[in-house]
C-alpha cells in the first residue's frame, strides 16, 4: 500500500496509489454510487467501459438499507456489486449531519433518526469503522463532524477538536478490525479528514495535528457546503501545503470541471461529486465547450452526437435529437445515456489532466480547457 509521487508541476501532483484492489492513477475522479449503484441505471460493466477507476459508496445509506451485516454475509461490497477495482466508502458523518433533522451529538458519537423509517440509530467512530469493515471497502473515511461552512468560530473550534479525538478512535478501531480473522479486507486503508470551515488558521492547525498520525491519505472536508468558490480556493491555498505531499489529498464532494482543474492546481488529487450523474438525470450534459440542456427545443432536430469526437457509448451511437426525445418521453434510457456521457466526460478529463502533468504541460492544458468550456455551445 503506497503512494508514488511521480511528478509535480507547481503544486499540482501526478501520483500512483497502490491498493489491495488495484492501482489508482491520480488525479482521479471517483464515480459516486451511493447505495452501491450509480443513479441512472449504470452498471459496473458500464463503469469499466467509461474508464472509472474508483467507485464511491455511502456508509450511512448502506447501513440503513440494505444493511452492512448482510453485505458482509454475502461476501462484502466488491462481490455484492461485482466490482473488482477500488471502492472508497465515506464515513456517514456528512449524511448524519445533513439528513438527520433531529440529532444529539455527544463525545461518544451521534444519536439520530433514520431518514428511511425513523428508527433511532447511534453512530460514533467505532460504529462507522465497523460498518465500513463489514463492507470491505478499499479506503474507509474517518468519522467526523462536518460543521456548516459559515458556522461561528467557537462552534467550529469545538467541532474540530472532537473530530480530532474521533480520528484517534477510528485509527485504533480500524487496526483492531484489520487484525480479526473474519475481516473481509484486512488491508483496509483509513483516510483522515481536515475540517475547520473557512477559518484558515483552524484548518492549518488541524492539518498539522492529523498529519502526525501518518495515515495512508488525507481529505479536506466541509467545503462545497455553502461557501463561495473563491472561499474554497482560498482554504485550499492555505491548508493543502500542510498536508503530506507524499500521501493522496482528497477534496470531498467537489465539483464542477472548473473546480477540479483549480483544485488540481492547488495539490489535490482525489475528487468525487454527484454533479455528473445528477445533472445527467435532468438532461444537462457536459462538453468541452460548456454544458448543454438537452430539453432545449433547438436540439429537437439535431442529429449530431452530444459532442463530436467523444468516445462514450452515447455519442458513438445516438444523436442529441434522440436523447432529447427519450428525456421528453420520460424514458429511463434518456437519463442513462446522459449519465454515461457525463461520467465518461469527467473520467476522460482526469485522464487528460494526468497526461498533461506527465508532459509538464498542465498549466497550458488548464487554461485551454477553462477557456474552451467558457465559450458556450452551439
TrEMBL record:
EC category: transferase
Residues reported to bind Zn(2+): 310, 312, 315, 341
Functional pathway: tRNA modification; tRNA-queuosine biosynthesis
InterPro entries associated with the record: ArchSynthase1/Queuine_TRR, TGT, TGT-like_sf, tRNA_ribo_trans-like
Cofactor(s) listed in the protein's UniProt record: Zn(2+)
E.C. number: 2.4.2.29
Pfam families associated with the record: TGT
Catalytic activity: 7-aminomethyl-7-carbaguanine + guanosine(34) in tRNA = 7-aminomethyl-7-carbaguanosine(34) in tRNA + guanine
tRNA-guanine(15) transglycosylase-like domain ranges (all copies): 11-373
Gene Ontology molecular-function annotations: metal ion binding; tRNA-guanosine(34) queuine transglycosylase activity
Spans annotated as RNA binding: 253-259
One GO CC annotation: cytosol
Quaternary structure (record): Homodimer. Within each dimer, one monomer is responsible for RNA recognition and catalysis, while the other monomer binds to the replacement base PreQ1.
Family: Belongs to the queuine tRNA-ribosyltransferase family.
Biological role: Catalyzes the base-exchange of a guanine (G) residue with the queuine precursor 7-aminomethyl-7-deazaguanine (PreQ1) at position 34 (anticodon wobble position) in tRNAs with GU(N) anticodons (tRNA-Asp, -Asn, -His and -Tyr). Catalysis occurs through a double-displacement mechanism. The nucleophile active site attacks the C1' of nucleotide 34 to detach the guanine base from the RNA, forming a covalent enzyme-RNA intermediate. The proton acceptor active site deprotonates the incoming PreQ1, allowing a nucleophilic attack on the C1' of the ribose to form the product.
UniProt-recorded name of the protein: Queuine tRNA-ribosyltransferase
Source organism per UniProt: Pseudobutyrivibrio xylanivorans DSM 14809
Amino acid at each position: 500500500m503506497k503512494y508514488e509521487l511521480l511528478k509535480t508541476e507547481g503544486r499540482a501532483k501526478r501520483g500512483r496509489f497502490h491498493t489491495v484492489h488495484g492501482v489508482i492513477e491520480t488525479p482521479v475522479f471517483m464515480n459516486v454510487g451511493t447505495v452501491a449503484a450509480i443513479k441512472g441505471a449504470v452498471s459496473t460493466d458500464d463503469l469499466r467501459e467509461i474508464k472509472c477507476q474508483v467507485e464511491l459508496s455511502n456508509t450511512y445509506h448502506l447501513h440503513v438499507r440494505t444493511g452492512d451485516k448482510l453485505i458482509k454475509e454475502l461476501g462484502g461490497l466488491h462481490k455484492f456489486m461485482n466490482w473488482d477495482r477500488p471502492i472508497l466508502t465515506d464515513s456517514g458523518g456528512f449524511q448524519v449531519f445533513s439528513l438527520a433533522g433531529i440529532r444529539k451529538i455527544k463525545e461518544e458519537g451521534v444519536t439520530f433518526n433514520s431518514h428511511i423509517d425513523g428508527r433511532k440509530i447511534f453512530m460514533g467512530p467505532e460504529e462507522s469503522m465497523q460498518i465500513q469493515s463489514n463492507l470491505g471497502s478499499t479506503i474507509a473515511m474517518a468519522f467526523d463532524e462536518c460543521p456548516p461552512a459559515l458556522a461561528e468560530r467557537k462552534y467550529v473550534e469545538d467541532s474540530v477538536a472532537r473530530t480530532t479525538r474521533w480520528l484517534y478512535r477510528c485509527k485504533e478501531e480500524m487496526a483492531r478490525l484489520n487484525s480479526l480473522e473474519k475481516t473481509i479486507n484486512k488491508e483496509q486503508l483509513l483516510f483522515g479528514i481536515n475540517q475547520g470551515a473557512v477559518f484558515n488558521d483552524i484548518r492549518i492547525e488541524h492539518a498539522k495535528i492529523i498529519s502526525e498520525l501518518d495515515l495512508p491519505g488525507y481529505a479536506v472536508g466541509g467545503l462545497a457546503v455553502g461557501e463561495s468558490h473563491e472561499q474554497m480556493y482560498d482554504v485550499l491555498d492555505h491548508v493543502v501545503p500542510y498536508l503530506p505531499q507524499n500521501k493522496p489529498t482528497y477534496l470531498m464532494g467537489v465539483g464542477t470541471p472548473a473546480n477540479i482543474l483549480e483544485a488540481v492546481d492547488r495539490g489535490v488529487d482525489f475528487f468525487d461529486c454527484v454533479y455528473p450523474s445528477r445533472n445527467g438525470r435532468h438532461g444537462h450534459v457536459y462538453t468541452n465547450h460548456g454544458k448543454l440542456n438537452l430539453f432545449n427545443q433547438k436540439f429537437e432536430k439535431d442529429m449530431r452526437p452530444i459532442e463530436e469526437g467523444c468516445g462514450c457509448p452515447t455519442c458513438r451511437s445516438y444523436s442529441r435529437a434522440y436523447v432529447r426525445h427519450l428525456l421528453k418521453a420520460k424514458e429511463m434510457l434518456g437519463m442513462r445515456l446522459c449519465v454515461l456521457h457525463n461520467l465518461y466526460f469527467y473520467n476522460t478529463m482526469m485522464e487528460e489532466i494526468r497526461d498533461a502533468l506527465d508532459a509538464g504541460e498542465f498549466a497550458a492544458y488548464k487554461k485551454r480547457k477553462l477557456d474552451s468550456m467558457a465559450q458556450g455551445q452551439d
